[in-house]
Amino acid sequence: MLYTNPVVVSILVMTILCLLRFNILLSILVSALVAGVMYKHGFSGFEDGLASGFKSLLDALADTTSTLITGMKGNLETSLSYILLGALAAAIANTNLTAILINGISKFLSSNRINFILTIAFVACLSQNLIPVHIAFIPILIPPLLVLMNKMGIDRRAVACALTFGLQAPYVSLSVGFGLLFHNILKKELENNGIKVELSDISSVMWIGGASMLVGLLLAVFIFYVKRRKYENTKFEEQELREVEHARNLKMTRKEWAVLGGAIAAFIVQIYAGSLPLGALIGLIIMVIFGGIEYKKIDKIMDNGLAMMGFIAFIMLVAAGFGSVLRESGGIEQLVNFASSISGGKLGGAFLMLLIGLLVTMGIGTSFGTIPILASIYVPLSLSLGFSNAAIILLIGIAAALGDAGSPASDSTLGPTSGLNADGQHNHIYDTCVPTFIFFNIPLMIGGIVGAMLL
């Protein structure tokens, strides 16, 4: 029965805890222990007496913890990448480079509302690939532009969609920057579950996810949020106007040039070597050698990098351990057989997998951390339904990405809200989460199903 299946119960526990806003890291750990105890201890562990039952329970907890810790090594490279990327972003934030670049870009922003929004989406894309600062650029770029957006009558829901598109679509579809991280995790977890693929195999199908999101963006910008929307100018906007004037006087110094050179070097190395940790490390070394990072401030930069990305890195480690526990629990085969029997074939199976992925990622708030959990279930299920390797890549990749847009706990929604609500006129749920959920998750679901059926 499904209610005794350790995989089903642990996933439900994790999703409920996350939706209740319980700490994500602790939610995954608790859920992993639930799966392990159900497998090793079961519901009848106290039949031989209370003392014996408690000893058996403690043994099950210890064994599960050991399995989880062993499985965590599967995401060591990814976690190191996150920490080094955090240091790289902290080094960039320690200079005026981002403000100077954004000030330069803002001069080219069109007075046409649609062109303005699409330019914002393009800039957001660069934050995932060329200069991997993730959401750190938003509090610098967006607040000063609120005055201009108000004057033009731009609906901030369209800008929220543009920012979320730029934060998610590049890593879903391109093996560069954060996309290299996402695709490497996907590659590793597929191999852990018996399917050997190359990065080129992943990028050759995951473009479907990016294209699906592009459709959603265009629908939001050209059709649904094209009308003018009125916002009031507040004291905040007046202050931002003064700060914009100050930013115009900033100039590139040796420090900014050194940081820019390090960022470009990191980008080039990761492309040619296929290693994000190596690229980030070389970028940091170049910044130190040429004065982009002051020698006496290296510890501070690394601390800031850990503060920025360390928690996500640990989530990735624990998620890999959780996946290992699920694989060992013995519940996956039972779940696969049940899902195969009710799916009604490939079409139903694809829809079921993507729907579950949406719920899990909405709860966790990170598509990167969802892959190890989903792959352990979806690979055997997809194989039993007769999907090709290319279709399996697409299903797991999109299932993990589903829910990142629209999740109240995701960086892809929290980042845009932090900038657009700087003056208190943008609601996180109704102006960011709901629009991004509708315009990205629905196209991703359709693209994933159609793509999987055709591949």
TrEMBL record:
The keyword Metal-binding does not apply. Residues 5-108 form the Putative Na+/H+ antiporter N-terminal domain. The keyword Transmembrane helix applies. The chain crosses the membrane at residues 6-39, 82-102, 114-147, 159-185, 205-226, 257-273, 279-295, 307-327, 347-365, 377-402, 437-454. It is a multi-pass membrane protein. It is found in: Cell membrane. GO terms for cellular component: plasma membrane. Keywords: Cell membrane, Membrane, Transmembrane, Transmembrane helix. PANTHER family: AMINO ACID TRANSPORTER YUIF-RELATED. This is Na+/H+ antiporter family protein. It comes from Campylobacter curvus (strain 525.92).
